[in-house]
Design a protein that fits this description.
heterodimer; A: about 675 residues; alpha+beta; five-stranded antiparallel beta sheet; five-stranded mixed beta sheet; 13 strands; B: about 200 residues; 9 helices; about 25% strand
């Protein structure tokens, strides 16, 4: 129920209670007044009866005078008095009293009726007496028995009148007693009733107050106390808020309690979040501070006036200073000419500067300075990240030296790699040569040409031989067969000799290539890439032929390029060798190597060696170009590393693509078409 | 005791009130008391009447003996004393007196013994309905045998003590007072007015 409705009920209850109280008091007062009226009226009646008694007494005296003195003039007086008496006894007001005024209404009504009858009887009796007097008056002067009888009748009726009057008096007294008792009772009861009604009214008001208090004020006090308790809670104690929720009470207060509860829960959550955020902030601050202190680079925060606001411990180490000498001081005390005004430093934001500084202690250091800016609360501040590059510069010098040595070593390795390939190929060819020579040798050793000698021996004993006709007849057949066999041997020997010759030529070519590349220094020369690739293939030709590799060549028609031919050859031989090894390792039944030359743009060319070999797994992918890394049992991890360095050295790069293990690999060498320095020597290449 | 004192005071006041009444009505017997004589003396066979006049002397005598119960002037005049006889033998006297009461005149026929003590009485006229209480034996026995002196004591307290239990209502008490007053007057007036006649009668005996 809403407070307004409750208030209305309370007010209505109070008003109705007041009205009822007033009504009860009014009714009781009215009844008391009525009873008082009855009582007063009755008292008047009783007084009237006394007066009537007196009048009746006078009337009787007059009658007595009439009868004793027998004066006729007394008759008129008696008549007048009798009329007066009759009028007095006549019920002028037939008053009806309200029910409930007397304890016994029936008795009262009976009394009233009796009074009426008594008065009526009195009226009649007085009339009767008057009639007797009037009759007696006519007998004046001749009194006798009738007179005496009239006298006795009049006395008898008079006695009845007196009785009736006494009865009337008694009846009025009864009514008087009733009314008096009732009046007394009501008078005594009235204060009790009024008191009781007022008490009830006050009880009602109290109840209304209690109702309002319990239903409206108590819930509000409850909420107030809860709110005060919550106010006294220390957020650090992490105590839960007092529960505001009310189940009973005015609708508004219940809704208010729910809202307060929601608000409290929200507030508590916010406090918890705030605490967590504060803890996190402190943690982050500590973490950040730890990070900042753990960073070897100096981090300095400047305000828009170039004043140092924060810096980490690395700053003090870098500049050989301390907190007192830096905090609140200009950045120029550490880095000269860094800040002249806001605009000047703003221009430096995002740039990386390298400087040489001299610390307070006189140490010379090389630094790298990166300035960034940030805005917080509409204020711009600058963050200076200063890296001590002294060691790096020194290392770079060392690296440069090492790199030069490494390049030299790589070159040597490359040369050795090529030489190894050549020697391997030559060795292979020499095997063929050896086989061919062995075959020729065997052919010659097992030649049937010896059969001629045998035949000559047989034929030297002509007698026996020619006597034996059968043997003579067999000689042509034998010679034919021997000739065929010798011819066959000759063909085999010629074939082997031809092969031997080819192999020797091949060795000559390989050695010639070796001589060609071995004698070439790092000099640029114009070359045809397809020829270069063919040469690289030829170096590995024997294996390609041996295992019957499918060679797919996709060469674009590209003009000669000015390149370091030896280095390109070195890379290609290495890549083809790797492709061959990968295919052999995969035991692929359809070994295929794709060689591709294509122009990427006007300045770059792409040379691709792709195989369907064992492939390169993802974990190996990242370290494939690392120095010393190899997947071969006999590898030394120089090849690809050297190739990558060589490609970079030529201003190009070497890229590897592999879909994964057993899915083949693709090496792409990207080189500029003309990356030769202007002073580079240009050699005319040999086709 | 308080009630007795109140009633005594009331009776005294009532007596005084009536004694001071100045009205000039004549209060004599309205009816012939013959019936009353035979009622009072049932054995009576005849009666004799002696008429005498109640005069100022009598009135003065009454005033002297009954200061609060003076005779009204209308009561003065010729009055009759009846002598009840049984075969010429006097049984007693009968005198009727009218006395003013609340409800008009009360006529009491008094029967006196020959020694002028109360023998009996009866009402010839009395409107008061409480007469029935007065006519009871209990009340009459209070008066029977009393002469004037003894009768006079009844208006004092002892009478009230005896009389009160008899009367439950005020009217009866008033009528009793009237009756006693009437009796006292009757005894006194009879003795005063018919003294010579009574002596003669006694001498006759």
């Amino acid at each position: 129920m809403k407070i307004a409705q409750q208030s209305m009920f309370v007010v209505l209850a109070c008003v109705l209670g007041g009205l009822c109280t007033s009504l009860v008091i009014g009714v009781k007062s009215y009844q008391l007044q009525k009873i008082q009226e009855v009582h007063t009226d009755n008292q008047l009646h009783l007084r009237d009866i006394e007066h009537q008694k007196l009048m009746l007494s006078q009337w009787f005296v007059t009658i007595d005078l009439f009868f004793s003195q027998q004066d006729s003039y007394l008759e008129s007086g008696i008549n007048i008095q009798s009329k007066q008496l009759q009028n007095m006894f006549k019920m002028k007001e037939n008053k009806t009293y309200q029910a409930g005024q007397f304890s016994s209404e029936q008795e009262f009504n009976q009394l009233t009726q009796e009074i009426f009858q008594t008065r009526q009887s009195l009226h009649q009796k007085i009339g009767s007496i008057t009639t007797i007097i009037n009759r007696s008056s006519r007998l004046l002067g001749s009194q006798g028995k009738i007179w005496n009888n009239n006298l006795l009748k009049a006395d008898a009726i008079s006695g009845e009148v007196i009785l009736l009057l006494n009865e009337l008096h008694s009846q009025y007294e009864q009514i008087g007693n009733y009314s008096e008792d009732k009046l007394k009772q009501d008078k005594s009861n009235l204060p009790i009733i009024i008191g009781a009604v007022i008490a009830l009214y006050f009880l009602l008001v109290f109840w209304a107050w209690r109702l309002a208090s319990i239903s409206s004020i108590k819930p509000l006090e409850y909420l107030n106390s809860k709110a005060n308790r919550n106010l006294n809670l220390n957020p650090d104690d992490q105590q839960p808020f007092q529960n505001f929720t009310l189940l009973k009470g005015p609708q508004e207060v219940v809704e208010l309690s729910h809202s307060l509860q929601n608000y409290a829960e929200s507030l508590q959550q916010q406090i918890e979040h705030s605490n967590q955020a504060r803890i996190k902030s402190v943690s982050d601050k500590n973490y950040l501070s730890t990070i900042m202190d753990s960073i070897t680079d100096a981090i300095i925060t400047l305000d828009d006036q170039g004043i140092i606001r924060n810096c980490n411990s690395a700053t003090y180490q870098l500049f050989d200073t301390n907190e007192k000498k830096t905090q609140g001081k200009s950045i120029n005390t550490l880095l000269e000419d860094t800040y002249s005004n806001f605009a000047s430093i703003s221009k430096l934001v995002g740039t990386r500067l390298e400087k040489n500084i001299t610390t307070i202690k006189g140490n010379n250091k090389s630094i790298e300075l990166l300035i960034t800016s940030a805005t917080q609360q509409n204020k711009t501040f600058f963050v200076l990240a200063i890296h001590d590059t002294s060691k790096r510069v020194e290392n770079e010098k060392n690296v440069k030296r090492l790199n030069q040595r490494l390049v030299s070593a790589s070159r040597k390795v490359g040369v050795a790699e090529v030489a190894t390939s050549i020697l391997h190929n030559v060795g292979n060819i020499l095997n063929s040569v050896h086989i061919s020579t062995n075959l020729i040798s065997d052919t010659l050793q097992n030649s049937r040409i010896k059969g001629i000698n045998k035949l000559a021996d047989i034929m030297s004993n002509k007698k026996e031989f020619f006597n034996d006709k059968d043997k003579v007849e067999m000689i042509p057949e034998y010679l034919n067969s021997l000739a065929a066999r010798i011819d066959q041997e000759r063909e085999i020997t010629m074939k082997e000799v031809t092969l031997l010759n080819n192999n020797i030529n091949h060795i000559e070519e390989i050695i010639s290539s070796q001589q060609q590349f071995a004698s070439t220094s790092s000099s640029y020369e114009w070359a045809t890439l397809s020829d270069l690739v063919e040469d690289a293939i030829n170096i590995n030709r024997d294996i390609i032929d041996q295992y019957n590799f499918n060679l797919i060549k996709e060469f674009e028609d590209i003009k000669d390029v000015n390149i370091e031919k030896f280095k390109i050859m070195q890379i290609l031989v290495n890549l083809i060798t790797n492709a061959k090894d990968a295919i052999l390792q995969s035991k692929n039944k359809n070994p295929t190597i794709i060689l591709r030359i294509r122009s990427i743009n006007e300045s770059s060319i792409e040379l691709t060696v792709q195989d369907n070999g064992i492939g390169i797994s993802e974990d190996i992918n990242k370290k494939i170009f690392s120095y010393g890394f190899t997947t071969k049992k006999t590898g030394h991890g120089f090849g690809l590393h050297s190739c990558a360095l060589t490609a970079k050295e030529m201003g190009g790069k070497l890229i590897m693509h592999s879909a994964g293990h057993k899915l083949g690999a693709k090496f792409v060498l990207i080189i500029p078409k003309d990356n030769a320095p202007k002073s580079a020597t240009v050699h005319q290449i040999r086709k | 005791m308080k009630n007795i004192a109140l009633y005594t005071t009331f009776l005294t006041c009532l007596t005084l009130t009536y004694s001071l009444d100045t009205r000039a009505e004549a209060f004599c017997a309205l009816r012939d008391p013959v019936a009353s004589i035979y009622q009072l003396y049932p054995e009576a066979t005849s009666f004799r009447s002696i008429v005498r006049t109640v005069n100022k002397t009598t009135r003065s005598h009454v005033i002297n003996h009954l200061p609060n119960m003076s005779l009204h002037f209308s009561e003065m005049g010729r009055h009759t004393l009846y002598v009840a006889l049984k075969n010429e033998k006097e049984l007693g006297y009968v005198h009727v007196r009218s006395e003013k009461s609340q409800w008009g005149l009360v006529e009491v026929a008094w029967a006196l013994n020959l020694d002028l003590s109360i023998h009996d009485f009866t009402f010839q006229r009395a409107r008061n309905p409480s007469r029935r209480f007065i006519e009871t034996h209990e009340f009459k026995s209070q008066l029977t045998g009393r002469n004037f002196s003894a009768m006079k004591t009844l208006i004092n307290q002892p009478f009230a003590e005896h009389a009160l239990p008899l009367f439950s209502d005020k009217d009866a008490l008033q009528l009793a007072s009237v009756v006693i007053q009437s009796g006292l007057k009757t005894l006194l007036i009879t003795e005063q007015t018919w003294k010579s006649d009574l002596i003669d009668q006694s001498q006759l005996d």
